[in-house]
């Protein structure tokens, strides 16, 4: 039906929302988007290049408390001090955070979608009461230990073990590439037991637990990444997550975090497009802004399509999730498609910036290298491609 009869007139589309996705947002969703966007631009953006160059977040506990006041930790969870928002609202928050930097979205995602979701979904009532309100407030930090040095895409081959010793559990093993590991107060550690894979709440001051920081990263530098070493870590019987049995438990948490990536990389892509538009409009060569040249305009058109198709994909998956209709392969579709789109946009934006694009004065190279990590963690591109093909063929290529 045409809008002509009611007097509506089309307006010139905005580059960041060319297809009008924001028109489908509720008032509450817009308010959450704007609150996180304003916080990110005022409190994070002025510092993130410096943090990236330094290879750390200088004061993560104060940052955690600020995120807690903002209400983004575990915002999609209900009760225990959590905001209880819908999935689209959480996605919008991830989009705004990753528009600043992937490491900052990861900071929030690991706390809320991995550590807090594991406790919320699989913990006892006592565990939930003990940990979740303080984690939602940013007073306590968590991490999530699944990946190992020799068990990345195949977490079922993990070597970390938990054995019974009387009424206690004793954990031995190593986890790798753990965001917030060295600053966490509690680690959710997944280990092999005689009864299968189980999850454990490990206070990080427990004897035998250590979390050395991983240095010399060239990507996701505004983030703290650690190894977890468990050397005879003794835990009481009630440290186990009673509802988590088998590999499906940690994988379901990863699916929650992966959903945030679907939105987050759309934010990184948007930031690169906006930077490229500003730069191309002001950079003059041959007496003309480079935005006037056909080759540059083609690059801008390609970026425009990628950015807005990524947003559409995230939005549709979010609405499916809120309706209870999101299959795990929908989220694989989103990560597979949106990360690749964001990588194309970041690389093209870097090229438009020329030599200036490799400096931290502009955000494009920072996003470009961050996306290399995002492409790898929580399911590589190849793993998600095989997941999608298995869904539509009914044939698994994994085993």
Which secondary structure elements does this structure contain, and how are they paired or packed?
Elements lengths: L26 H28 L5 H11 L7 E2 L2 E2 L3 H14 L1 H21 L2 H12 L5 E4 L15 E5 L2 E12 L6 E8 L2 E8 L5 E2 L14 E11 L4 E6 L2 H35 L1 E2 L2 E2 L4 H29 L5 H25 L11 H13 L4 H13 L6
Parallel strand pairs: 3-6
Antiparallel strand pairs: 1-2, 4-5, 5-9, 6-7, 7-10, 8-9, 11-12
Helix pairs in contact: 1-3, 3-4, 3-6, 4-5, 4-6, 6-7, 6-8, 6-9, 7-8, 8-9, 8-10
Tell me, what is the CATH class of the largest domain?
Answer: Mainly Alpha
Provide a count of the helices.
Answer: 10
Span of the ends, CA to CA: 50 Å
Q: How many structural domains are formed by the residues?
A: 3
Quaternary status: single chain
CATH architecture of the largest domain: Up-down Bundle
Short description:
Belongs to the acyl-CoA dehydrogenase family. This protein has 10 helices and 12 strands.
Mind explaining what this structure looks like?
- By secondary structure, this protein is of the alpha+beta class.
- It has 3 domains: 21-136, Acyl-CoA dehydrogenase/oxidase, N-terminal domain (Butyryl-Coa Dehydrogenase, subunit A, domain 1), CATH 1.10.540; 142-245, Butyryl-CoA Dehydrogenase, subunit A, domain 2; 249-393, Up-down Bundle (Butyryl-CoA Dehydrogenase, subunit A, domain 3).
- Helices cover 50% and strands 16% of the residues.
- The strands form 4 sheets. Strands 3-6-7-10 form a 4-stranded mixed β-sheet. It has a 4-stranded antiparallel β-sheet with strand order 4-5-9-8, covered by helices on one side. Strands 1-2 form a two-stranded antiparallel sheet.
- The longest helix has 35 residues, at 248-282.
- It is globular.
- The N and C termini lie far apart (50 Å).
